Amino acid sequence: xxxxxxxxxxxxxxxxxxxxxxxxxxxxxxxxxxxxxxxxxxxxxxxxxxxxxxxxxxxxxxxxxxxxxxxxxxxxxxxxxxxxxxxxxxxxxxxxxxxxxxxxxxxxxxxxxxxxxxxxxxxxxxxxxxxxxxxxxxxxxxxxxxxxxxxxxxxxxxxxxxxxxxxxxxxxxxxxxxxxxxxxxxxxxxxxxxxxxxxxxxxxxxxxxxxxxxxxxxxxxxxxxxxxxxxxxxxxxxxxxxxxxxxxxxxxxxxxxxxxxxxxxxxxxxxxxxxxxxxxxxxxxxxxxxxxxxxxxxxxxxxxxxxxxxxxxxxxxxxxxxxxxxxxxxxxxxxxxxxxxxxxxxxxxxxxxxxxxxxxxxxxxxxxxxxxxxxxxxxxxxxxxxxxxxxxxxxxxxxxxxxxxxxxxxxxxxxxxxxxxxxxxxxxxxxxxxxxxxxxxxxxxxxxxxxxxxxxxxxxxxxxxxxxxxxxxxxxxxxxxxxxxxxxxxxxxxxxxxxxxxxxxxxxxxxxxxxxxxxxxxx
Length: 523
Known about the structure:
globular; 13% strand; single chain
């Protein structure tokens, strides 16, 4: 039985801070976005398991990064790799009561193998060796460690994505599962449905599709696969990626060769790197987040195959609905938290192996050796339910993003629009499916950016916070949130500190353009 204190702490938080009605959602974020100062800290969507939180003003985003009390105390949730969910915190507290000594903290993991990886990594980073404890829920383990290394411990949780989900935490606390929508199937059927669905779209057998509890875990597993196959070799990051993709390669391997611009010069430099030393594989995004650059996948594929290493492509922004990468990629990774879910109340990830790759056999053997099925039952059931509208959602949001990009490109207050139709469009079109779009994301920089960006952002009547691929538009000052401690470095890589990322939703196009026009009038 879970201790009464942890149970009351969890239930008290949920009763006082988060909505209790889950389906249908209490607020239609398409028509009633969370964007005003008074919306600070509200979950998006209106669910206790929401994976995004409203940060409605520019200063709120800065305050979040600086740990400002006003902002931190207002947060009711957060992206689960970056912010410990309150249900997870309640589980940690119970683990500490049961297992921890004085001045020790605990984290909870979905398997013993994950706990052992955490122990080995924290020891390698700090010299501390955490203790592993079997939890009270089957397949649930805890690690206790000195509070003095808590920041390093959280880095593992963030970068690996291997922590327990909020729904698994609720089960550990003894809370009754909340009702799922009508039409949800059980976990076994849901996993089969998702693998079959993705396999059908991609054009490969479901046996080559692997599911993960969060998108970053797929990247993390592939980093381990590379180390298993090519020990001691650095990996390559081609193009400026989403922040944690680079961090995984920096912190969980023998090093990374980072080529941030994905240019012809960077391609030549990569050829030089291969001549100088053996490398383990190439990670890239198609297109990249947040600059929406499409790298030369054909050239990267030729180079990778020449040297017998895999090309690993993250297609989260474009999605498999819009692009077919099996002609070049050996492995494709994606976040199911984003466009596949589209709601924002569950996480998931996937990767698929290219059955036509010359490396398919060795990659599959190494992946099977590293792989664990860590998706929690309720999470995967809900994910499969949301995924039934995946294809339609992608088509609608891609069309909206294309229209918004065209509108913003001709606005006098906009200095730069980043969108696959404008950044290396010929490289994107080479892999675009017939009838496919360019994805739901764009980024913008305004003229007089230091003054105009905060004014525009504060005035925009769209949901504001991290995440993308939702039914509702989400906007954030991306560089502030992702690279606040390294803004000068990001700018040297070509990413302005005033860049705003726009993850376009399914609002009527006329309404969407009107909201952006109104905000630009105030910029």
